[in-house]
Structure formats: structure tokens, C-alpha cells
Amino acid sequence: MSEHESEHILSYGFLAQILGGLVVLTGVTVGVSYIDWGFLNVPIALFVASSKATLVLLFFMHIKFEGMVIKVSFISTMLFLAIMISFTFWDVAFR
Amino acid sequence: METAIDKTGVKIGMWIFLYSEIILFGGLFVLYAVYFHTFPEDFAEGGKELNRIFGTANTLVLLISSFTVAASITAVQRRKKGQAIGFLIFSLLCGLAFLVNKYFEWGAKFHHDLYPNSDLLLDSEPGFNIFFGLYYTITGLHGLHVIIGMVLLSISLGLVIRDKVTDQRYAMLENSGLYWHLVDLIWIYVFPLFYLVL
Description:
The structure holds 2 protein chains of 2 kinds.
Chain A: H1 12-32, H2 41-60, H3 68-93
Chain B: H1 7-38, H2 40-49, H3 52-77, H4 81-111, H5 119-123, H6 126-161, H7 171-195
Helix pairs in contact in B: 1-2, 1-6, 1-7, 2-6, 3-4, 3-7, 4-6, 6-7
């Protein structure tokens, strides 16, 4: 392993900040669920969930500090998942 | 003697496995999406049966345990063995708390005749039955992942104690951590979809 890719150490304080952000977003998602936003209910819930997922992926799972292989393969998986969900959905929704 | 270890390769292998896990749960979420589209009222009705307090508590337990797992890696990198052991034991206790919570939650549902093939579900609207079918399948499969994650973390804990996981070589701990974060990640989507649908 070459020197420049030596591991990146995340401090406890930084990790605690991420946890704080995740707890706040959990509060947000529970809070907004008491209000009926009509057809926006699910998109809002998924948006907050995806923000939380992004924090976990980037920092707890360290993707932000990984090389191109993991970054690109992860994004490809997400694209595949999006195709899987959206194409199934188009089929069902317009049947 | 110096053995060459491909740290990046070890991690890529774990990620490829995690991608297959993401697609596994993705398939179940597709089912959820399609049935939610067909039976929106029944799903909202089903969601009201689930306890938000339990759901929120379990969300917080998993988030905190994810933090402590990430912190245990920092501790290992800084050669603070005692702290790493403490963080890992705390994470395992969080996993246990999650499962105990889940036990009481499922128990309460069973008590109200809300379990697969119960008379109440068979006689109710099809969407309501499907909602609980998906609830038990997805939270059950997720619970199984929590147990596997706890086994992996316990093995890593043992390796840390026996000095097999050090600041020079901690791939086992790192990959167990990735698995644990994935469990957390899935729960982040399960929680709003089941507990918070209106």
C-alpha cells in the first residue's frame, strides 16, 4: 500500500457530530409525519431517509475517503437499484 | 516476516457483497412500493397499528451503535485498545437492545392477532394483510441481519482482545463495521416506510 492512500482517521468529535445530525434528522422525519402533506408524504419521508443514508455512507462507511473503484461501483449499484424500482413501477402504474 | 495485505482489495470484496444485500432488500422495497401504490389506504391503516415510540427508539439505538462501531475503528487506529473494546461491547449491547425491543413489538402484534395467517388478517382487507406480510418479511430479514452483524462484531471484539486486530491490520473489524452500518442503513428506510406512513 502506497503512502498517499494511508488511512484517514476520523476523530470521535467528528463522528459524534454526524451522529448528532442523524438524530436531528430522525426527529425531523418523526415530526413531519404528524402533518398530512397529501401526496408529498412519501417523497418527504424518503428525502429525509436518503439524507440520513448519505451521512451514514459518506462518513460512517467511509465512502468519502475511498478510492474510485468503491465510489464508482457504489454509484453503479444505486443506478441499477433506481432502474429496478422505476421500471417495475412504470409497468405497474400504467397497466 | 512481512506479509503483503491488499487492504483495498479486502474492502472491495466486502462492498461487492454489500451491493448484493442492497439489491436483496431493494427487491423487497419494490414489492412494498407496488402494493403501496395499489392499496394506499390499507397501508396507512396498517401503519397506524405500529408503535412509533418503539420504532423511534430502535432507530436511535441503531444510529448510536453505528457511531460506536465507527468510533471503535478510530480507537484501533489510535492504538487505544481499551476504548475499542468498550465501544464494541456497547455496540453489541445496542444490538441486543434492538432485538429485545423487536421481541416485545412482535409479541404485542401477536397478542392483537396480527401475525401471518391469523384469522383477523385473513378476514381483513387484502392490502392490510399484505402490509403485515411485508412488515414481518422485511423486519424479520432485517432482524436476522442484526443477529449476523452481532456475530461479526463479537468475532472482531475477540480479535481485538487477542491483539489480532491492530492499527496495522484491522480489515476484519472494518468489514464487520461496514456490515453493521448496512443494517443501520436498511433500517433508515424501513422505519419511515412502515411506522410513519399516514
